[in-house]
Design brief:
The longest helix has 17 residues, at 234-250. The strands form three sheets. Strands 3-4-5-8-9-10-11-12 form an eight-stranded parallel sheet. The protein has a two-stranded antiparallel sheet with strand order 1-2. The chain is an alpha/beta fold and 295 residues long. It has eleven helices and twelve strands. The N and C termini lie close together (10 Å). The relative contact order is 0.15. It has helices at 33-45, 61-70, 99-113, 128-131, 134-145, 162-166, 191-198, 234-250, 258-267, 282-289, 291-294; strands at 3-5, 12-14, 18-19, 50-52, 78-83, 86-89, 92-94, 118-124, 149-155, 173-179, 201-205, 272-275. It has a single domain, classed as Alpha-Beta Barrel (TIM Barrel).
């Protein structure tokens, strides 16, 4: 495994992390504690030290499964979680975002993760007006002073949100999480240069474009109900998959997994500290980890 400095946090993060939205039950299946434990223990064996989660991946469910897997080795992991949403059911969330809400969410995350501190506590796709809320900023500063969080980050949406990126330093935000992959290079225009200028750590999410860059799918694929990709316009999916086929034919070296190459492609940009693909199995995790060898 290789490691990079996560911007001004000075944390040394593995270039491959583990994204954990799937453990909340919104990717078409539920995960047992044993499955998550096996995946994260293997991740540790491979040198991966970064986990990204959120309070709304299930009702703190992903966090609870992570806590159950790593609490005995907490010191070996850098954990990033988020605030600003509450899970009510499949793709059904509300947005409790007052200072009082944030305090409650933080305490819930600490309990679920079985830890007394969170390494990176991230705004979760907040509106710009909410990002600017001085009451929320005050709550976060008090949590830092109490040692409950070490660093503040922002998981931005959309992925060209320059308001939150450019305003990061003033808000004591040290990391930016952003959708970035071979099919969506929008952050290269303004967001990534702004991160470099401010020395912000960059976490690239959705690096496999929700699996489209895995190389497993062809135009016409029908994603079943219960899959987050179900219901998206078929013409858009088919257009993206035709582009994936072209990329695989013209850019991916022979003998290299498309998924592994796609993760390594994200890491070529000097602003990116870590990519955070999800994985449903130990085998997928190992394919992801192999991207560090291509970087």
């Amino acid at each position: 495994m290789k490691y990079r400095r996560l911007g001004k946090t000075d944390l040394q993060v593995s270039v491959i992390g583990v994204g954990t939205w799937q453990y909340g039950g919104e990717w078409g299946r539920d995960f047992s504690q044993g499955e998550v434990t096996d995946i994260l223990h293997r991740a540790g064996d491979l040198g991966i030290n970064f986990i990204d989660t959120a309070e709304c991946y299930g009702d703190h469910l992903s966090e609870m499964l992570i806590g159950g897997a790593i609490s005995s080795a907490r010191q070996n992991w850098i954990i990033a979680t988020k605030f600003g949403h509450k899970y009510h059911g499949y793709l059904n969330r509300s947005e409790p975002r007052t200072p009082t809400d944030i305090v409650e969410q933080l305490e819930g995350s600490l309990r679920a993760l079985r830890t007394d501190y969170i390494d990176i506590y991230q705004y979760h796709s907040m509106r710009n007006s909410e990002f600017d809320d001085m009451g929320v900023r005050d709550v976060l500063q008090k949590a830092k002073q109490a040692g409950k969080i070490r660093h503040i980050g922002s998981s931005i949406s959309p992925n060209d949100n320059t308001h939150q990126t450019d305003g990061a330093t003033a808000a004591d935000v040290e990391t930016i999480q952003v959708i970035y992959n071979r099919l969506d290079r929008k952050p290269e225009e303004k967001v990534l240069p702004s991160c470099q200028k401010q020395d912000l750590g960059v976490l690239a999410r959705v690096p496999l474009a929700s699996g489209l860059l895995s190389g497993k799918y062809r135009p016409g694929v029908a994603f079943p109900q219960g899959d987050v990709r179900h219901g998206k316009p078929q013409d858009q999916i088919d257009e993206q998959l035709r582009e994936v086929a072209r990329i695989q034919r013209e850019e991916v070296p022979s003998g290299v997994s498309m998924a592994t190459w796609a993760l390594a492609w994200c890491l070529r940009h000097p602003a990116v500290s870590c990519v955070i693909p999800g994985c449903k199995s130990v085998e997928q995790l190992e394919t992801n980890a192999a991207a560090a060898d291509l970087d």
